[in-house]
Amino acid sequence: MDPELEAIRQQRLAQLQSQYKGGNVENKQAMEEKRQQMEDMRNSILTQVLDQAARGRLNTLCLGKPEKGKMVEEMILNMAQRGQLSNKLGEKELISLLESINQQTQRRTVVKFDRRRAALDSDDDDL
C-alpha cells in the first residue's frame, strides 16, 4: 500500500471521529434541553390543575415513593389532557384519587404459619 494514501486515510478517519464525538456532545446537550423543557411543561400543567396544598402533597409523595408519585402525576396529566378536570383539584380530591389508586394496586399478602416449626419450642422440656 502507498504510505501517502494510508496517511490520508488516517487523517480522514480521525476527522470523521472528531466530528462524530463533537456531534455526540451536541446531541446530548439537545436531549438534555428537550428533557428539561418536557419537565417544565409537566410542572406548569400540574401547577394549573392542582391547588397549592394538593401540589405540596404530590411533591411529598414523590419524595417518599417516587414510582407511585410519577404514576399519579401521569394520571393527572392524562386527565387534564382529556379534559376530565373542570377546575383545580384540591387536597381532598387528590387524597381520594390516591385512595382509589391504593385500592386498585393493593397487594394481598398471605401469611402462613407453620405449626410444626413452632412445635419445636414446646413446654415439654420444662418437666
UniProtKB/TrEMBL annotation:
Coiled coil in keyword set: yes
Coiled-coil intervals, chain numbering: 13-48
Family matches, as InterPro entries: PDCD5-like, PDCD5-like_sf
The entry's keywords: Coiled coil
Domain of life: Eukaryota
Gene3D superfamilies: PDCD5-like
Family stated for the protein in its record: Belongs to the PDCD5 family.
Protein name: Programmed cell death protein 5
Protein species of origin: Polistes dominula (European paper wasp)
Gene coding for it: LOC107067587
